């Protein structure tokens, strides 16, 4: 039944540089969700944060490197 205590989901925009996290879900309207899913941000995908500054975040997902605005990254919930 239980898999132990789960970490609460955290927006990708708050993940620190050097951390690797797993996509738990993508929030937002259909347009933003569709865009992020096309980039590979789907449930269960691993995301490595290369660098994170106040307004931008650079990540590697499925072998590709992307730069995201922090507002967009906030739609990706990670665990």
Automatic annotation (TrEMBL):
GO molecular function: transition metal ion binding
SUPFAM superfamilies hit by this protein: C-terminal domain of transcriptional repressors
InterPro entries: Fe-transptr_FeoA-like (IPR007167), FeoA-like (IPR053184), FeoA_core_dom (IPR038157), Transcriptional_repressor_C (IPR008988)
Keywords recorded for this protein, A-Z: Iron
Gene3D superfamilies the UniProt entry points to: 2.30.30.90
Residue ranges constituting the Ferrous iron transporter FeoA-like domain according to the UniProt record: 10-79
SMART domains per UniProt: FeoA
Name by which UniProt lists this protein: Ferrous iron transport protein A
């Amino acid at each position: 039944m239980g898999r132990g205590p789960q970490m609460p989901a955290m927006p990708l925009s708050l993940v620190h540089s050097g951390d690797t996290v797993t996509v738990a879900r993508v929030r937002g309207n259909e347009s933003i969700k569709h865009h992020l899913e096309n980039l590979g941000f789907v449930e269960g995908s691993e995301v490595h944060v290369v660098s994170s500054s106040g307004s931008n975040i650079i990540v590697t997902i499925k072998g590709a490197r992307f730069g995201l605005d922090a507002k967009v990254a906030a739609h990706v919930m990670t665990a």
